[in-house]
UniProtKB/TrEMBL annotation:
MF GO annotations: hydrolase activity
Taxonomic superkingdom: Bacteria
Protein name, UniProt field: MBL fold hydrolase
UniProt keyword annotations, A-Z: Hydrolase
Metallo-beta-lactamase domain segment(s): 24-223
Amino acid sequence: MDNITALGGDVYEIDTRMAGYSGITAGYLILGDRPCLVETGTSTSAPVVRDALTSLGVGPGDLATVVVTHIHLDHAGGVGDIAGFYPDAEIVVHEKGARHIADPSRLMASARMVWGDRLDTLFGELSPTDASRIRALGDTGAVDLGNGRTLSSHYSPGHAKHHVGLIDSATGDLYVGDAAGVYLPQTGDLRPATPPPDFDLATALDSIDLFRALGPQRLLFSHYGPVTEVQETLERSAEELRVWVDLTRQAHAEGMDLDHAVAMVRERTRERYAALKADEATAEKFELLSGAPSNVAGIMHWLDRAQP
């Protein structure tokens, strides 16, 4: 299948084809003794992910574990559907997200407030997962991949209060979710993901420091793909956060409303990203992945709490 890329170490990147786009959200299959899916993508992507797993030889009774880095709908919206396709798989999530996987009603209501009618085309509906199948992680935890191989989870809030990073003992791959921002392989651009309501600068920078300290061999971005320049990329993640926060703080101090703040930050960061100078489709994809309105709104929300 053209949406599967072998990354070595029995790891396969699956393009979940979110909202019909390619290269927006990746799921990863670790095909060890106990096959593990990291990130499900959206609910509407679940059949795409299932077909990819089938083509890799993983049948309904074979998937041992599904892990999500956090419960935002582009990462975990398909959990309920995937749990249905793979009745023996354990669903692993941070304890702060577990109840929303069991009962998604509040999560879906707030998502609908943010996205309105676009919710259905972008994400679809997160279906509930039987609570008995969910394993809630604390600050650290481990997933057994079989044959002594483990996926260790490390609590990494800042982007979301239910976010974990995951490191594979066999490959040194670190699944960074959204905590290191979003990466666009076509242009090598990296930009922060700071949506409301959980963004917090100090916590986000601490999570990047934690990722550095784990000494990964490779970063696997949910958006999108593998990066081997580990330390340089994490350095840049922190720098991007500081740039966006400094500019938004300036707008906030000048009393700008959200629209004016977004326009100012967009204007002053434009030169940082090759994607925005590329063709329209690439620019549109980058905005969908890490939209300036969502990023600035998240930082403004944090500033309002931090400096009322």
